[in-house]
Here is the input.
Amino acid sequence: MSSTHRNRSDMRGPSNGQERGSALDKALAVLEAITAQSQPIGLPDLSARLKLPRQTVHRVLTHLEKLGLVVRDPSRDRFSVGPRLSTLALNALRTHNQSAPIHAILQQLVDEIEETCNVGVLDGLQFVYLERIECQWPLRVHLQAGSRVPAHCTSGGKVMLAHLDEAVRARLLRNVTLKPCTKYTITRTEELEAELAEVRRRGYAVNNQEFMIGIIGVAVPIADCQGRVLAALAVHGPSPRLDLDRAIGFVPRLKEASAIMADAWTSGPEVADTPTSSRASSARTAPARVGD
Here is the structure.
């Protein structure tokens, strides 16, 4: 959610500072403020940003925490998005995806590079496919939209993990066993953190037979104009046909398509009505995004 939403200072009376607005207004204001941040935020900052008394914000946060919409980091007393809110956001993306031209953009990409492509988001330590289009080759992996795969050993999952807030990622990985899917899977948290740092540095993630033997994948972030990662766009295929060098060679085209998808998600119906070929042309000269 954008930080450009209306200022919530209108919740206070103009002369005596008396609070106005419903409990729902305040809860939405708090959720908007939390989701607009790239890292967890504390009570004093929330109170100041929303121009609401700390006691009021604390009461709202307590209720939201009970509902699972926010989570509190007890070591720093800061709040971030909770699992229930993540699920709501995931469902919203799926619903919006039906009217956005994501499928058409993905189909155009698959037709061009002739390999399976997908768009997905993070849900806990799983990467969930929002949209997926299989190539026409007989040798391919059959997974449907809505399928879940481990994030730590897939290229799309690594992209999403790499761009999480550090504290949120640490909480996700704390006391978790990274299960090996193949002999190439990273199973130590320290090694995974090093890999994620490399993902941020080079702007894309690779899966070199880490999820399935014989399957190679590469993914890039889909980021909004403020650099916040919305989802990941990935391509993958069997190694006899798609070796790692060839897969990495698709990165510039993946970034171009990811920029178009980001516009489709964030710019409304006017972008959805624009032919994908026209948007591709303008995307080539668009400002650099996360991962570029």
The radius of gyration is 20 Å. The longest strand covers residues 229-238. The chain has a mean pLDDT of 79.
